[in-house]
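Changelog-adjacent note: as of this version, every example in the card shows the full chain rather than a window. The one below runs 111 residues end to end.
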Amino acid sequence: ATVEEVKNLDIDTARKIYKQNYWDRLKLSHIMDSRFADILFDQAVNRGTRRVAEQVQKMVGVRQDGVIGPITLKAINNMDSKKIMIEFLLVRTVVYLASHHQWLHQLQMYH
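Full-length structure tokens:
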């Protein structure tokens, strides 16, 4: 999409795009804890669905293929939701800190 097309995007179309490309791709409606589904959605938008899927698959101990399917969903829903959310958010924080550190390092190279 062009910049102009994005600027002129209506809210209903934007919702459809986010639902189709992020929420549905990760099958978030099948996660029993809606808070965790919301966290995964947020991260998918910011980091990509494949990365988020691989991260959660690693956390729940299933094959990391980057695609959320019935095996991953069962593993997610069988885990303690509070524990998995805390772990996921800790990993997210480390990822952001590492990215921030790299960005600062690159910025310093130009000054």
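Structural remarks: The mean pLDDT is 91.
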